[in-house]
Amino acid sequence: MEGKLKDLTGFLNINKPAGITSHQCVNRIRKIIGIKRVGHGGTLDPEVTGVLPIAIGKATRLLNYLPGEKTYHGIIQLGIKTTTDDLEGRIVDRKEWPILSNNCLEQYLEKFRGSIQQTPPQFSSIQIQGKRAYEIARSGEYIELKSRNINIHTLDLLNWNQEKGLLEISIHCSAGTYIRSLARDLGEQIGCHGSLAKLKRTQALGFDLNQSISLPSQIEFSKDFHKFLIPIINAFDHMKRIKLTEKQNEDWMFGRAIPVKVFQLQQAPKGNPISNQKNPSSLILDSIGEVIGIGLIEEDSILKPKIVFNSK
């Protein structure tokens, strides 16, 4: 099996179940297909479900070049404050929530739309002097985390249960957004606390929940592995493509710069909503259309390699 699969490259669009970490998902895939070079994009908390992109082989080097925006479906519980800003943490305070109409809630939600400053949760993977924030928080120490700019493109109210204090939302946001922080901050704005009760990621890094597959649990999955593997080129509709000639292939493989005027520039496929993003990097294809790396066109009209795949 390993001999057949070791050279595979591409992505899996996994629908992560609750109760398992993103790293455990990666380890399961490694065990099933017998390949060590496996990674994931966009960490999900253990109880969060939904889209978890998994990279296989050379594709692991390209995770940072996938589109970073994400979409979530979540439920916020008003009236509760916890150590982790979700219902998995220890409850530290309770308050009654006020009578809220949908129009009133819309006014509160409007404050979180667009470009805003957000402080990450105490229990997060932020690096603080070489340690993860959650490691410090577990020791009982409070951390003064810096706020950072995020962008919430859409924030829609789907349902409001006044009796239970449950707020159902849909959110499309930039990379680095914490929905737990949104739940916490919304509750504080209303004046009654708030914690994240449930969360599902419906889109991440260009992968959609509708095209996802369940996390495999059987070794037999490896027999049909090719059916589920998404080729690199299919995951990069947001990026321009540059196709090299046979002569330029060798220059590229040796990391040599290539003058802009001599290569074939191909626009990203039309109809993709993210294909019009400003992106200085380009996906590089060899003369037969195989992906061989990522390049950057610099001001001196030269294509310079950023990531070069070794030849087969």
Oligomeric state of the chains? single chain
Q: Count every helix, treating DSSP H or I runs of 4 or more residues as helices.
A: 7
Rg, rounded, reads 22 Å
Helix/strand structural class: alpha+beta
CATH superfamily of the largest domain: Pseudouridine synthase
Mean pLDDT: 87
Order of helices and strands: HEHEEEEEHEEEHEEHEEEHEHEEEEE
Number of domains: 3
Q: So what's the overall shape?
A: elongated
- In CATH, what is the class of the largest domain? Alpha Beta
Report the major sheet: 10 strands, mixed
Task: Sum this structure up briefly.
By secondary structure, the protein is α+β, with helices and mostly antiparallel strands. It has helices at 2-5, 22-33, 102-110, 133-138, 179-190, 225-228, 246-253, and strands at residues 10-16, 38-40, 49-56, 70-78, 80-82, 91-94, 114-118, 127-128, 131-132, 148-161, 166-173, 194-204, 207-208, 213-214, 240-243, 258-259, 264-266, 281-285, 291-298, 302-308. It folds into three domains: 2-67 and 206-233, Pseudouridine synthase; 70-204, Pseudouridine synthase, CATH 3.30.2350; 236-308, Roll (Archaeosine Trna-guanine Transglycosylase, Chain: A, domain 4), CATH 2.30.130.10.
Task: Give an account of the 3D structure.
The chain has 312 residues and is an alpha+beta fold. The protein folds into three domains: 2-67 and 206-233, Pseudouridine synthase; 70-204, Pseudouridine synthase (2-Layer Sandwich), CATH 3.30.2350.10; 236-308, PUA domain (Archaeosine Trna-guanine Transglycosylase, Chain: A, domain 4, Roll), CATH 2.30.130. The chain is built from seven helices and 20 strands. The strands form four sheets. Strands 1, 2, 3, 4, 7, 10, 11, 12, 13 and 14 form a ten-stranded mixed β-sheet that branches. The model is unreliable at 270-278 (pLDDT under 50).
